[in-house]
Design goal:
The complex is a heterodimer of chains A (about 675) and B (about 475). With about 675 residues, chain A is an all-alpha fold. Chain A is built from 26 helices and six strands. The longest helix of chain A has about 30 residues. Chain B is of the alpha/beta class. Chain B is built from 16 helices and 14 strands. Chain B is globular. The chains are: A mainly alpha (about 675), B alpha/beta (about 475). Chains A and B meet through helix 1, helix 2, strand 2, helix 6 and helix 9 of A and helix 1, helix 6, helix 7, helix 9 and strand 6 of B.
Chain lengths: ~675, ~475
């Protein structure tokens, strides 16, 4: 687009805003008020449900958006069966509550004692499973939900006409919200929930079966989300991705209002709704960013939120492992053998394997690298980053922009990418390492989404949602990276190199301090370490490696689009990491590679492969939280134990655990 | 902290189970990878062109060549039907040597899945027709392989690469999203593979035009050149433009604004507003529009955004006060909206009621195969494939270097009228009707009435203004 047109457009919008302000009349005020209320009511239902669930169970429910969606779809079905919207309004939320309770009982119930990371991963897995199930049952098309006859059309309110259904939404939503508040305020159930949010331990001591209340609260939260979905359906439409946007808004509202506070989320919901409604009219250029800005502002000045009762404790939710699985050294025989085999793969090209598969395996390296970057910050400091897509995407865009504007040199592109991602990681880190656990997750999530929004709406810089294609890159002018074989070796080399760096760093004094921080930040700070500084540095390193993964990705694809920055990419990285094994460095590399390979294979046979992946994620979180690495270690341990028992039997004396160099170097230590 | 990993009790059981699962999983993966690897060998060999030469020989003398091709036909005919319900599975059978492979990257998941599925149906019907009535392409049976682009440009490009390198595609058709289309078009040019998209932006046959890209579907400038002058002349000179803030929406904004401002009548753009893609709540904008002095509103959004916007406009009673205009009133969207969309004006992208011979043929074949009406994506794919088949048959070969010149300036009577594929930018030049949505007549979805048809030369941009500098093959 012509820059002068863009500039003129920009001024025009600002002009428009000023004009709007001065021309504000009764009509517009009324519209703004009513629109804000209608939006706010939906937000109240969504955010309060999420906030209450978190307050008592400490679970950040990523699946809240799909409950919203389920409510809408179930309403669609009920209306189809009975013809009545009001029956749907009654039945659908209840059905969602039952589903929510069922899910809670079968999955979340088993992992309450684990760290929040696992909760987040589990609920993310549920998002994938449920979304694909919905597609399976109802199809991917948007479904129409007609407004009920008696509520359609507009009604005259003074000087304006306003949709009847929106007024109904305001009314119905308010009734539900007030009833919920009364539930908390006046019933036994509400009393226990409020007490539990304050201090779970004491409530347990008083003999209350918290597990039952967890289920009930989760059901209640799901009911509220489902109700929001039913109310939204006729007005906003029903389709499988309808929960994504409102989920993000709900996160922001919960932070602004204060985690765990029902009233806080109510207040914040209306604040955010009005900000959005007014913002659209007065500062439309900021539309995508406004909410994030508010969230960051709150985090800077009043992190507990407006009415927050939740303590944003610094050393909350650390990541401790009962088994410490050390990273496999590069000098280990098995690793050398593996690298050797991989190095030989491209030589079989055209004879044994098609060229296409060389490319696939190269991508597996890229994903392994990306998962590795995440493990550096999650497995070793215990910071839950849900925004690593930012580094992946920024690294890729950096190369695309460099190649597009400056030169074809791959090395220059790498340099720019590393600088950019390290800088961004440092900024995000500076803002957020003070917080831990779910706060850190939400902040990184929001930061990545902010960058995504920027990429989508800045076509002059990033090509917008059309993306950017790059012609060709070369190393030092003679190695053409569009050749899949050359790229394969490059990717392998970068992966091995970064793994080496990561292992060495984690083994250094710096790395030891990181592990200490992970185990107990308070202890580490008492020992005199500036823990925030270490966390920032580790996060920057993680960002740089993530950026390298993005660099490789765009070099292979020769194309980048904002989809690389969407939070699903962060989710995929988390998935790869948990699949492979947190905190082992080699586990996530394996996990990333397997994830990519699995996708490739599943794609040819299964339509709903995301459903399969989601199921695998859920199963792994529940049953094998240390991932594949723990399986390998387990195998090794079985060998060890057999040796020991044999020896004990034969010679009747204690034996060292490690007698054979071929045994995995990990030792199993029980930690209380 | 309670430790669920307590060893000694349940740990051995858990570990044993996981070991077993993991081992069998790895074994299965290895086996599957092996199978997939072996399966893909033959098409790659088939695509080497040597077989294409055999087909040519068969065509010359009609000796054993034809006979064996006829044999292929019998084997191959069920193949397109198999892929009708395909979900991206490579056409069940190993592609017999000599088949022409149509590679089709389409969105089968994601926001545009519905359009992708319609494309799929149209492509299948076209392939059947080509095999049954046209004797295939160069006498060879045509088969099609679908891949899911997931409405993601990087994925789409990957799948296209797979179709070309693994399945031995001879032509690529499909895509819906502009971003995916441009990504695949870029790859197709690199790989020297002809590509007929449904989507794309102005640049697809404009500043980023490529000799391998051919486009039958209307370009953004065609949409605007048909829609804007008509709307200004018939609905009023005060215009409100609302668009979705991503590439497609931005192109609608730019093209329509240009046409409106350059119109000889004294036009006034009251305001230009936008929402991000995927916005569901348009209340604020509709309220503003209602209080303004605009005559008509251009709704530069599509898909579920358009459905939401029109639904909410109805709730606000906006249709009674302002005219609503959209260039994206496709059959699925009309079906989803029902009576809410009646009375909206817009570009009639596919006049399914047309009684031209070409359209009747298409509609008959489509309805008998699928039991439902085709929509624009299906029609575009049908036409694209038929044009490509004709070009290849006229050139006597399906190789890119031969087909491309044959397709340039090719003229045809298509379901939407007399069409020429221009040599300067490979964009189809054809007439464009404007109309109004009306109550449903034959089918459950709202129908249309045509109010004016803009001639082809008026609607398409002159070659010099497209920004296309066609590179060599």
């Amino acid at each position: 687009m012509d820059p002068t047109v863009a500039l003129g457009f920009g001024f025009g919008t600002l002009d428009g805003a000023v004009v709007q302000l001065s021309n504000l009349n009764v009509n517009q005020l009324l519209y703004l008020l009513l629109n804000g209320l209608a939006l706010g009511v939906l937000y109240v239902l969504m955010a309060s449900g999420m906030s209450v669930i978190f307050g008592i169970t400490d679970i950040l429910n990523f699946a809240h958006g799909v409950f919203y969606m389920l409510g809408a779809y179930l309403a669609f079905t009920v209306i189809g069966a009975t013809g009545s919207y009001f029956i749907a309004l009654l039945v659908a939320p209840l059905a969602v509550a039952v589903i929510g309770a069922g899910i809670e009982r079968s999955t979340l119930n088993r992992i309450y004692d684990r760290q929040p990371l696992y909760h987040i991963l589990l609920t993310f897995g549920l998002v994938l499973v449920i979304t694909d199930l919905v597609r399976l049952v109802w199809g991917s098309d948007p479904q129409p939900v007609a407004t009920p006859e008696m509520l359609s059309g507009a009604v005259k309110l003074g000087p304006i006409f306003y949709p009847k259904f929106r007024l109904f939404t305001i009314g119905a939503g308010a009734v539900i919200a007030v009833s919920t508040w009364a539930l908390f305020r006046y019933t036994q159930f509400g009393l226990v929930v409020r007490a539990g949010a304050q201090d779970q331990g004491t409530v347990r001591l008083l003999g209350v079966d918290m597990a039952k209340y967890f289920t009930l609260v989760f059901a209640l939260g799901s009911l509220l989300a489902g109700a929001a979905g039913v109310l939204a359906a006729p007005f906003l439409g029903v389709e499988p991705t309808m929960g994504n946007q409102i989920l993000i808004t709900a996160f922001i509202i919960v932070i602004v209002g204060g985690m765990g506070s029902y009233l806080g989320s109510v207040v914040a919901a209306f604040v955010i709704a009005f900000v959005e409604t007014l913002g659209v009219v007065f500062v439309p250029e900021l539309t995508g960013y406004l909410l994030y800005l508010i969230m960051f502002a709150i985090l800077l000045f009043r992190p507990e939120g407006i009415l927050g009762t939740y303590e944003v404790r610094k050393d909350l939710a650390k990541l401790s492992f009962t088994e410490s699985i050390d990273p496999v050294r590069l000098g280990d025989r098995r690793v050398i053998a593996l690298i050797g085999v991989l190095a030989l793969v491209p030589l079989g090209i055209h004879r044994v394997i098609p060229e296409y598969y060389v490319g696939v395996i190269s991508l597996m390296f890229v994903w392994g690298l990306f998962a590795l970057s995440l493990d550096v910050v999650m497995g070793y400091i215990g910071l839950i980053s849900f925004g690593h897509a930012a580094f992946f995407g920024v690294g890729a865009y950096a190369v695309a922009l460099t190649v597009g504007t400056a030169s074809n040199s791959f090395l220059l592109g790498v340099a720019v990418a590393v600088v950019a991602t390290t800088a961004i990681a440092w900024v995000i880190g500076a803002l957020s390492v003070r917080f831990s656990g779910v706060y850190f997750a939400i902040i990184t999530f929001a930061a990545a989404q902010l960058i995504y929004e920027f990429a989508v709406s800045s076509p002059d810089i990033t090509g917008g949602s059309n993306g950017m294609a790059i012609t060709t890159t070369s190393v030092l002018g003679f190695l053409d990276l569009t050749d899949p074989v050359v790229f394969y070796y490059l990717a392998l080399a970068v992966l091995v190199g970064c793994y080496y760096v990561a292992v060495r760093v984690m083994d250094s004094p710096f790395g030891r301090v990181l592990t200490a921080i992970r185990e107990s930040e308070r202890r580490a700070s008492f020992l005199g370490y500036d823990t925030n500084k270490y966390k920032r540095r580790a996060f920057s390193l993680s960002g740089a490696i993530g950026g390298l993964a993005g660099v490789l990705f765009v070099t292979y694809q020769q194309f980048i689009s904002p989809d690389a920055l969407y939070w699903f990419v962060s989710g995929d990285a988390l998935f790869a990491m948990i699949f492979g094994g947190i905190g082992t460095l080699y586990g996530p590399v394996l996990g990333g590679a397997v994830l990519k390979g699995l996708e490739e294979v599943l794609l040819t046979y299964v339509d709903q492969w995301r459903l399969v992946l989601g199921l695998i994620l859920v199963l792994f979180v529940i049953f094998a939280p240390r991932g594949l690495a723990s399986i390998f270690v387990g195998v090794g341990e079985r060998l060890e134990e057999t040796d020991i028992r044999q020896l004990l039997r034969e010679r009747g004396r204690d034996t060292d655990a490690e007698t054979d160099a071929d045994n995995p170097p990990a030792t199993s230590e029980e930690r209380r | 902290m309670v430790d669920p990993d307590k060893p000694g009790d349940s740990t051995p059981n858990r570990r044993t189970i996981l070991k077993a699962v993991g081992a069998s999983g790895v074994a299965t993966l290895a086996g599957l990878a092996g199978c997939a690897g072996n399966g893909e060998q033959t098409p790659t060999d088939g695509g080497d062109g040597g077989d294409g030469g055999d087909g040519g020989d068969g065509g010359d003398g009609g000796d054993g060549g034809n006979g064996s091709d006829g044999g292929d036909g019998e084997d191959g005919e069920p193949t397109p039907t198999e892929t009708e319900t395909s979900d991206g599975t490579p056409s069940g059978t190993v592609s017999a040597e000599g088949n022409v492979v149509v590679g089709s990257p389409v969105p089968l998941s994601g926001a545009l899945a519905a359009l992708g599925e319609d494309e799929q149906r149209g492509i299948n019907v076209a392939v059947d027709y080509i095999n049954e009535e046209m004797g295939g392409i160069n006498g060879r049976t045509v088969e099609v392989v679908f891949e899911d682009t997931e409405t993601n440009p990087a994925t789409g490009r990957e799948r296209a690469r797979r179709l070309v390198e693994q399945e031995g595609a001879d032509v690529l058709v499909g895509c819906v999203s502009g971003a995916v289309t441009n990504s695949v078009a870029d790859y197709a040019y690199d790989a020297g593979m002809p590509f007929w998209p449904y989507g794309g932006s102005e640049s697809t046959t404009g500043s980023s035009c490529a000799p391998t890209t051919f486009r039958y579907v209307y370009s953004a400038s065609q949409d605007a050149r048909a829609g804007a002058p008509w709307s200004v002349e018939n609905l009023g000179t005060n215009v409100w433009i609302h668009y979705a803030d991503y590439s497609y929406g931005q192109s609608i904004r730019d093209e329509w604004r240009r046409q409106i401002e350059n119109h000889e009548m004294d036009t006034n753009i009251v305001n230009v507003t936008s929402t991000s893609l995927g916005t569901s709540d348009y209340s604020s904008y509709l309220s503003q529009i209602q209080s303004s002095n605009a005559d008509w509103v251009l709704m530069g959004v599509t898909g579920s955004d358009l459905i939401a916007m029109i639904q909410q406009a109805n709730q606000f009673g906006l249709k009674q006060q302002k005219d609503l205009v959209s260039q994206n009133l496709t059959i699925p969207i009309r079906g989803a909206l029902g009576s809410a969309v009646v009375g909206v004006y817009g570009n009639i992208r596919y006049a399914h009621k047309s009684d031209s011979e070409s359209n009747q043929l298409f509609v008959d074949r489509f309805t008998s195969a699928h039991g439902q009406m085709p929509s624009e994506p299906a029609m575009v794919m049908w036409t694209s494939l038929l044009l490509h088949a004709r070009g290849a048959n006229e050139a006597g070969s399906v190789a890119t270097a031969d087909v491309v010149p044959a397709l340039e300036d090719i003229q045809s009577d298509t379901p939407m009228g007399q069409t020429t594929i221009r040599a300067c930018d490979h964009q189809a030049s054809r007439p464009y009707p404007m109309g109004r949505i009306t109550e449903p007549d034959e089918y459950e979805f709202p129908s249309y009435e045509i109010l004016d048809t803009r001639p082809a030369e008026e609607v398409i941009e002159p070659c010099e203004e497209t920004g296309c500098d066609m590179p060599s093959l």
